[in-house]
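tRNA/rRNA methyltransferase SpoU type domain-containing protein
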Amino acid sequence: MPRLLQDEFEVAKGLTISGQQVVDTLTPLMTQDRIQRIERVCAARTFNVLPIVESIYDMGNLAAVCRSADALGFGALHVIRNTRDERYKQSTRSAAGADKWLDVQVFNSTEECVLNAKRLGYQVVATHLSPDAVDISQIDWTRPTAFIMGNEKRGVSCEAVALADACAVVPMVGFVDSYNLSVAAALIMYEARRMREQALG
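Structure:
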C-alpha cells in the first residue's frame, strides 16, 4: 500500500508526537461505542485508490467528492490548484477543510501532483474521452490507482493526459454528454470499491 501519511504530528514548535501517542492519549476520553466505530472505519479504509481533483471551480464539488471518498472507505484526496488564476488562490485551508476525515494534500501544479503519485507507486488514470480511453470497469482497481478529475468547464488538462498512464471514461447511455464532477467521481470510486471487494474480499 502506498505510504501517504506521516506517523507523527507537530503539537508545538519543535515538538512532535506519534500516532500511537495520540491514540493512547485520546482513548480514555472516548466511549466504547465511539472506539469501536473508529476501529471499524479504520479497518475498512484503504489508501490504494487516490482521487485527484484538478483546478476545480466549485468548492461545493470538492466537498462532495470528499464525502463520497470517506463514505466509500478511501483515506486520501489530492487537490491541484492553478495558482496562475486568481480564482484558485484560495487558502489551503479551504481545500483541506472540505472533509476532516481524509488526508487532503494540496499541490500547486499538475506535474508535481502526478509525479508524486507515481513516486508513491500509483498508476495514474485521467478521466478523459481520448481515442484510447477505456471504460472505468476495464481499469485494474486492485492495483494502487490514482484517478484525475478535471474541472467543471474544461475537464482534465492536456498536461494531466500526457502524464497519465491511461485514460478512462464513465459510461453513459442517455442524451446528456457529461456527469456532474462530483457524481462522476462517486461513480468511479464506487466501481473501484466494487472491483476491489470482488477481487480481494
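The chain has two domains: 1-44, 46-200.
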